[in-house]
Fold each of these.
Amino acid sequence: MEFHRFPSPILICEKNRGISSEVDQVELHHQQGSSCGLSPEAAIKASKWVTLKTPKNADLVLDFLRNHGLDQTHIAKAITIHPRLLTLSPEKILKPKMDFLTRYGFSDSQLSKIISRDPKIIARSIDKHITPTLDFLKGLIGTQSDVVAAIDHSTLLLRSFYQKRLVPNISALREHGVPVSQVSKLIIKYPNALCMTSPTRFREVVVAVHGMGIHPSQTIFIEAVKAMVSVSKSNWDGKFEAYKSFGWSEDEIVSAFRRFPMCMMYSEKKIRSGMEYYIKVLGWEPSYVSRHPVLLCYSLEKRVMPRCLVLQVLLSRGLIKKDMKWTTALTINEMRFLERFVTKYEEEAPELTRVYRGMTESKCIAAV
């Protein structure tokens, strides 16, 4: 689909064009085609935020964005998020920002991602916002290439006003003894945790994680902070109760969280189905599962159940010992599992490869 030249619903000045209602806008939109790749609903929504008497500047903006590698999808998304992008001067406002970011090290594809996700960034001042933000991040992360990688991972880092959330949230970490190296990892791996969490909430989480006995110098500390800020209090309480319903004590829940913070990020449904399988189907003690919370991250259908079937076949034929640690078989990577428990026994159990492959590739798997 080609881009259509303006006028279009999102650009037409209603007063000048005589458009009296949203219905008229929709009809005109259908007559002229899809404006900038927007749906009629998106065009109407955008038209509430921008009014142009002439399509000239909008055409220049579109040409500028196309010439910098943005495709129709990128442009449509950017305009939907920030319709006033079409009112900006390509030469005076857009080009200086694009040139600056290119010199800094951002590739065309990365700039396309930035503009389509957070188009307001290229409307911000280089001196007052972009440069100070990049300098702040570089002071923590270390190199420009790392800053580029972090922003490529989350454009929020460049969109956010770092003084409002990044500074106080990082201060909360540093005050509790988290080393700069760990702060840097948090910025690179989980930037949204710093950018989207209010300072009050973030500080509460840092205090709570520290209070659980996790040492601030450990990588697991930032993993735990990220996990906790990602879960609302009501959801946290719900997951707490889900674990308790399967026999875990509060101490066991906290202990499991210290070992593997991700265990509190899964949905209650996933938690319950995993606990149900390990405790009721395999017959494991709740306390045993609490000591190996990483087991809850695996897909029952694609990993746990197929591997357990293999182990049960091998056990029934006396090919593995009864006291073998099944947790080891469930946690090792796929290649090692195949080598140790499937291909190793091709002569004694030639059907294992076919059965195992069938289960891991099928969506319909019966309980073992």
Note: The chain has 23 helices and no strands.
Amino acid sequence: MGIYILKRIMSIIPVFLLATLLTTGMIQLSPVDPAEAYVAAAHIQPTDDILEQKRHEFGLDQPFFIQYVNSILKKCQFDFGISYVSNKPVWDEVTLRMPATIELALGSLLIAVVVSVPLGFLAGMKRNRAIDHISRFISFFGASIPTFWLGYMLVFFFSVQLDLFPVEGIGTWQHLVLPSLTLALPLIAMYTRLLRASVIENLQEPYVQYAKIRGLKNKSIMAKHVLKMAISPMITGLGMNLGKLLTGTIIVEVVFSWPGFGRYFIEAIFNRDIPVIQCYVFIAATFFILSSLIVDLIQMFIDPRISRKEGQYR
């Protein structure tokens, strides 16, 4: 088990190097000159001397390999450069906005898990009954409705008509309700269907029949055995969506004026703030890597056979 964990952690290093290569190569492949983008954002009259000076400051006059190595060293020190717009360190700007995105991501995941686990489990146990039909309707509705439209509808009914929750901003739990629900509904649709299908599949496995022959109660079989094995695909989905949510739920943050990481990234695109865009790409890759690692470790503790299979394959 320890060897498996070490191998999974070591596998992060090549992805880190590849993510750094991509963010460094963005400048080489982009038609936008970083020096021109900087002077435009700073409202400086561009001249050949100023542009040449800025290219030298940014290290763009060095060979690509030197730029790549310097980029790795800087990222290890959490140095992502200076924002062209605010003229402040990008990492300071990101750490200022990341807590809001984390709060929104965890809030939406909590709602999704609390609703989808009992709903999907009951739908799988009571196939083709009323609860199953209800879960199907919720799943189809949640999977088909556009996120931005759902956000505006929630604002219209619960903020404008009923005046129950704030329209925008951050600060209290009331501000968190509507954007979290907007993000949670598509997740509920996906996790409910995943768990339902997994429960139905596990109910047909031989270990369920063996447990019944041993005289175990049906509730004990469902709670201790079927749910434990059926929830595995849902955990994988949670890990993938956690990385997506932590990189900034851009549409929802824009709809609800949520001061998060995704909204900051959109503003950087419009302003051609290249250091912020590079930072976003790198952090997004890092979050997906870490989410995948966390999911693999959780899956390993739920089903220790995973680490043994890895050892056999290697």
Note: The two ends are 14 Å apart (CA to CA).
Amino acid sequence: MKVTLAVVLLSSLVLQGCAFAPGQYMSLDDVTDKDPDGPAVTLVNITPTTLAQQQKSAAAMTKPLPPELLSYKTPEYIVGPGDTLLVTVFEHPELTAPGSQDQLDANTREVLHDGTVFFPYVGRIQAGGKTVSQIREQLRMGLAPQYTEVKVDVKVLRYNSQRVLLSGAFKTPGPQPVTNIPLSLVQAISQAGVDLTDANLAGLTLRRDGKDYVIDVDSLNRKDSQLSKIYLKDGDYLHLNSNSKNKIYVLGEVQRPQVISFSTTSVTLLEALGTSGGLSPDAADGEAVYVIRAQDATHSATVYHLNAKKPTAYALAKGFELAAQDVVFVGPANITRWSRYVSQLLGSNNIIQTGAMFRN
């Protein structure tokens, strides 16, 4: 009688363990059952068809670079206030002091705030708003009355009048000069350096003439990338967003539940599971891998389900791209839920006490 009662008690606990096990878990029934107090949920199984639809949607959302960015060609450099000009008059050392750095600085002329520059025997000329060749001709004509067949060379020694500004998740944000050598978008990013621990490579904003262009820097790795064809001009502003919102939450029966930050356009389900150490071999239910994606500003969500019981399912996980703020949840196996229930509600001491009670 005592043995029978104990067996009945244990059997009852076993049957109730899965139904009332503490902790979070999901099943297909949980997803498909409508909760009047919860969001409207759409269940989508991850299959080859799902991946094909995802790729098609991503291709439709990928916008080509605006033609006005690709068509811009850097014009000849225009001298402005703050630039330093180096003037050399050949065969006339009284006008050009050759030799040391100090003598070289004596040959330089800084363009003043009003755009003018002074040179001996010529006086003050307007250099701002003109090209180097135009300034050279001005000086030649100004020296002509005193010097016959004078040869003059002019070049910009220091560029200070034209700049682009970089801010955000760069290693060295700040201004970069625009010189007589065209400055491409890729060169500016390379010079500033990208802080990969904080940068969102898909969130670079180029502001030009009051208009914002969002550029995916991560696309530079693609064979059809045209980013290297974009050249910057004076007044351009580049801001690289932080990846603070680019997070994936991996929860449940994985080796290392964690929050994953990513700087690229997206991350795959396989990468998220791999970064988390994969499914727990002792506790996970391979048939219960879910991706929960809430819709912005709505009370609805889409739950993607992957049956990963077979290793071949990871081929699907490799092609499934996650979105920022997705939750990856791996449910526990039934035996795991029952084991936790027994260990928390009974424990070895309770079983011994129960047996002693029946014995008495």
Note: Residues 22-61+245-333 form a domain with the Outer membrane lipoprotein wza fold like fold (CATH 3.10.560.10).
Amino acid sequence: MSREIVAGVDGSPESLAAAGWAAREALHRGLPLRLAHAWRWEPLDLPLVQDPDEQQRAAYAVLREAEATIAERHPELALTATLLPDTPVSALLGTEDTAEMLVIGSRGHGALAGFLLGSYGQQVIAASSRPVVAVRSRDGEQAEPPSGYVLVGQLGSPEDSAAALGFAFETAAARGAAVRAVRAWSLPSLYAYSPGSMRLADEAGGLVPYEEKALREALAPWRERYPAVPVAEHVELGSAGEVLLSASGGAQLLVVGRRAKRGALGSRIGSVAHAALHLAPCPVAVIPQG
């Protein structure tokens, strides 16, 4: 089945920035781009004149404006635009059968931590089976450094981070960029490590060499698969979110994995992904693990 990149548009500067990033990524990867706008008639319980035909025309206008903007900037791009008769979250998730990735807009950091990404965006990220890229707006454009690396966080075992590492290497190969892989670690509490774990750390020469070895082992199959991609390794003591954010200043893209968790207030995307989405200065790709 043919693949495409899908970008959600809603008329906001954030979604236009997302569409622009998605267009450039589609060209890097040699894929078509589909712009998607969700709309369905849902009359409000208000004493107002509500015209479904007028609202539908407005929805099409949002879609056509985004399509015209992207087509003008990238005339060589294979581009389609679709009005999806559904709610925004369901509409985007409904494109996953053909989507290589979903791209959405993000407002980034500000005063109301926890609501900055938007409830729709957070729901899409938590529920999607495909990579989701959140792009911050700068007046409808996402400024990208002319050069820079794809930054990826490596956590846990090689299997735990395989999806995020694979996406990072694939993206870097398509862009002709390097990968910078970061593994954060913390000092164990008295009972955190089993005797077997401590023995392995001792055999490696200590905790730092042990963590460095774990990162090398996780990267090994991806170095072999993408031999032309330069790789930098970085192991640092600290929380994963803080270490990744400190390394994100020169990144074209930050890639993190996530395991969605259900809580009393709905799906949660994990502390590392949450920090990256709200505070990273570059676009953030959130990759479902396993």
Note: Residues 149-288 form a domain with the Rossmann fold fold (CATH 3.40.50.620).
